[in-house]
Amino acid sequence: MKQELIQYVQKQINTTSDRLNKYTHDINGKRLPARYMYVKLRKYVDDFLGKNFDNRLIIIPGLRGVGKTTLMAQVCSEVMENNKNVKVLFLSIDEAKNLFSAGISEIVQAYEEILGENVESLTQDVIIFFDEVQADPNWAKTLKTLHDKTKRVFFCCTGSSALILQTTPDIARGRAIFERMTPLCFAEFVMIGSGIHPIKNLKNSIREAIYFSSDAKEVFEKLKKLESTVNGYWSTVNRKDVDKFLTFGSLPFTLRLPNESAIYDAISLLLDGVIKKDLPLLGSFDAKTLTQVKRLLFIIAENDITSLNSLDEILGIDRLTILGLLDALEKAELLIKVSAYGSNMSVAKKPAKYLFMSSAIRMSFFAVSGNEGTLMTRKGKLLEDSVGSHLYREFILRGGGAFRYDSSQKGADFILQIANKKQILIEVGLGKKDRRQIMNSMKRIKSDYGIVFSSNPLVIDQENKIVNVPLDFYFLM
Length: 477
Hints:
By secondary structure, the protein is of the alpha/beta class. It has helices at 2-14, 16-24, 37-49, 68-82, 93-100, 104-115, 139-149, 169-172, 186-194, 202-211, 216-234, 240-249, 260-282, 287-290, 293-302, 308-315, 319-331, 344-348, 359-366, 372-377, 379-396, 436-442, 471-474; strands spanning 57-62, 87-92, 126-131, 153-160, 177-178, 335-338, 353-356, 401-404, 414-418, 422-428, 449-454, 459-461, 466-470. The longest helix has 23 residues, at 260-282.
């Protein structure tokens, strides 16, 4: 078996360029554009090659389908083209595990045989790209050991969101850098799909104005100054791209598929991967339970607030198991859990609202369940997914805040709490949207100001501390 594994690794080395090409170029041979994170990852590699050995272990977790493998392949391809003397290994741990029951340790041992020296005694730099590392249950311990053995090896690894929970304290404490990868934002989708780059610093300026102003007046005044710049960007963009983004474009692999039927078939396969490979890492679920996951997601897609009692009756699964599934789907970053606002005791009595990390996933269920007329009425839910994913990316992952929803009748969609210092009420809608829901919530919930993301123009209701922010601003964050 050892010799077979060595031969396999050697073949992977010999075929690296051809394998990378499948990820880095389209069917016409044109190089695919890179995501924002490419620049950051490339800098880590360049620093290493420049003899800065501080950051030698980069872990990229994220939901399946967000482009982790493509990103890594693009960086690997660039390294090979520009650094002919650097040894490079690029392979999938998932594939090696399936073929040879080999983990990272065995693969590195095979690679040492090919190099003719142990990693401890390397005299040249080596860059190793491992895809799907969560396939090896000992990945964290093994990478920590290898990291401590030598400074001459740079590791870049991708994996499902589940691997965050497999992280050992040792690898998390100073050794590894985690760069979480999320679905595309709109400006990144346009950049990849149409080649139109975002305006420098505009995203941060909008974000600062909306979330970090002292009051509604300051929000309005800052956004007013940005209005002409925002309009300038939109003059270059096809507005039909908004619908494409909400229905499938937040997952980059969909941009290479020929039609919506192929897109939603591919998303179904993506969900199969989460169910079969990720959920077993996140909980003890039997095969019968796992067969009900897509049905559970379908119910959530149609009714994002669903009581456990209802799910119990529909699925024929006990409440504890359903809670376990929902928790696992949240940890896999397929779903975003939005708890009701209130005290811990009152929240426990109210159902959580579940949004999809990518609105494309909700849309894949809509596509098989309704006609076009019905779909048009559901786009508000897709927008709510988008805003939830945006808040998750900007506040949860950065550790800068949390958000809930107002469970009262006709309450605000989101209550954003930023670093325990301020509270902002947020309402979202694709069409014209009035301020009543935020005003209803303001009667019960103390807040600094309210934001309505909608098709309304930029205006301020100073008396009620509410700013109507056009979606043109939201989509550029």
